[in-house]
Amino acid sequence: MPATYRKKPVVIEAVQITERNTSVVASWCHGRVRGTKLPASERTVQIDTLEGEMSGRIGDWIIKGVQGEFYPCKPEIFAATYEQVTTDG
């Protein structure tokens, strides 16, 4: 019979891709901006992930995992999975 498990709480770093920050995000995650001649809303950030090359679009989040790996995450999945950590001070 299967047992029940709870996902361990893990703190990650993440940045949401916007029309204004594609280059900054790509630099942070060692990725590349594709579509630089297209309107900003159509650009993507290409990332080499553990599963191969993936792309993040405007509105997607780029997550830095616990082992330093990067991967994109759709905003609705991010919102359902993560909450912002607040620090006092």
Describe the model.
By secondary structure, this protein is an alpha+beta fold. It has a domain at 29-81. It contains two helices and six strands; from the N terminus they run βαβββββα. Strands 1-5-6 form a three-stranded antiparallel beta sheet. A hairpin with a 2-residue loop joins strand 3 (44-49) and strand 4. It starts with 12 loop residues before the first strand and ends in an 8-residue tail after the last helix.
Write the SSE topology.
Layout lengths: L12 E4 L5 H7 L3 E3 L9 E6 L2 E6 L3 E4 L5 E4 L1 H7 L8
Antiparallel strand pairs: 1-5, 2-3, 3-4, 5-6
Distance between the termini: 47 Å
SSE sequence, one letter per element = EHEEEEEH
Q: What structural category arises from helix and sheet content?
A: alpha+beta
Q: What's the total helix number?
A: 2
Biggest sheet details:
3 strands, antiparallel
The portion of residues forming beta strands comes to 25-35%
Estimate the mean pLDDT confidence: 93
Oligomer: single chain
Q: Please give the radius of gyration in angstroms.
A: 15 Å
Strand order of the largest sheet: 1-5-6
**How many E-type strands?**
6
Shape field: globular
Low-confidence stretches: none
Helicity level: 10-25%
